């Protein structure tokens, strides 16, 4: 019994250390965002600002078009998430229900494609978008984000589809429902947690993405939030730390809010009781 309690205490201690490790950058970011310049340059930094101020936030909005950049990021992230889910859901259904050699090869290619570095695909993507006249446009960026998020979204949804009992689809087929009707009316509602989780992944990936946006968007009014954040760093590499921390803190809030709102749907067991044994 004593050994079991010691093991449990060790697990909780390790979990606490891991949470502190994850939370430290974000907490320090919040602290920095509210510190005045004299505290930012102090040789003895403190966790809690001695004289908290909102000047960094005002300066950040005065120096850079954060609202326009946030709107561009939101448009790209939401568009990529919706389109990726709409494409990946029927593809995942076919790959999960028809386990042919072609489906297995496609699954393997999905996994392998995630190992491709950004630099390897940016030139072909740039040439394709140039021919389509979508360079320096948010729709072109959405297209890139969909292509980049689709393989992992497909891989995630295949696992969720396989978790849906085939007895439900067989019962629908007996009642005369076709494949499309079964997918829309039976399988898709049961896939809601998986669809939400996949959409969240695509949204956060697009919201935080920097490299593609930096290469494809040239005019300041079309740049996304991660690209605009780099403007707080001067030509000599010296960062305007206070406004940068304030802007970065605001940039992390949408991801946190989205996750907090839909986390119950991600963890909810919507398949519970769907099939009676």
Automatic annotation (TrEMBL):
Which UniProt keywords are listed? Answer: Cell membrane, Membrane, Transmembrane, Transmembrane helix, Transport
How the protein sits in the membrane? Multi-pass membrane protein
The answer to whether keyword Isomerase applies is: no
Q: Does the keyword Cell membrane apply?
A: yes
Matching InterPro entries: BP-dep_ABC_trans_perm, MetI-like, MetI-like_sf
Q: Which Pfam families match?
A: BPD_transp_1
Where is this protein found? Cell membrane
Residues passing through the membrane, by range: 12-34, 74-96, 108-129, 141-161, 182-207, 244-262
Principal localization reads: membrane
Enumerate the spans annotated as ABC transmembrane type-1 domain: 70-262
**Stated family:** Belongs to the binding-protein-dependent transport system permease family.
- What this protein is called in its record is Carbohydrate ABC transporter permease
């Amino acid at each position: 019994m004593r050994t079991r309690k010691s093991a449990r205490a060790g697990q909780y201690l390790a979990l606490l250390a891991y949470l502190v490790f994850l939370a430290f950058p974000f907490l320090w970011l919040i602290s920095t965002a509210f510190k005045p310049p004299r505290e930012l340059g102090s040789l003895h930094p403190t966790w809690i600002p001695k004289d908290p101020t909102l000047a960094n936030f005002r300066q950040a909005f005065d120096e850079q078009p954060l609202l326009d950049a946030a709107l561009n990021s939101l448009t790209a992230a939401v568009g990529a998430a919706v389109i990726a889910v709409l494409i990946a859901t029927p593809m995942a259904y076919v790959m999960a229900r028809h386990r042919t050699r072609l489906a297995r090869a496609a699954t393997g290619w999905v996994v392998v494609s995630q190992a491709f570095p950004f630099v390897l695909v940016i030139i072909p993507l740039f040439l394709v978008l140039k021919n389509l006249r979508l360079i320096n446009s948010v729709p072109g960026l959405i297209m890139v984000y969909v292509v980049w998020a689709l393989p992992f979204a497909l891989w995630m949804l295949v696992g969720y589809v396989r978790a849906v009992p085939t007895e439900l689809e067989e019962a629908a087929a007996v009642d005369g429902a076709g494949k499309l009707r079964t997918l829309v009316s039976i399988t898709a509602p049961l896939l809601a947690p998986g669809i939400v989780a996949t959409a969240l992944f695509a949204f956060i990936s697009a919201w935080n993405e920097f490299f593609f946006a930096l290469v494809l968007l040239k005019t300041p009014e079309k740049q996304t939030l991660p690209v605009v954040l780099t403007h707080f760093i001067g030509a000599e590499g010296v960062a305007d730390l206070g406004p940068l921390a304030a802007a970065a803190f605001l940039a992390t809030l949408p991801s946190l809010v989205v996750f907090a709102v839909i986390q119950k749907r991600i963890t909810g067991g919507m398949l519970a009781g769907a099939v009676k044994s």
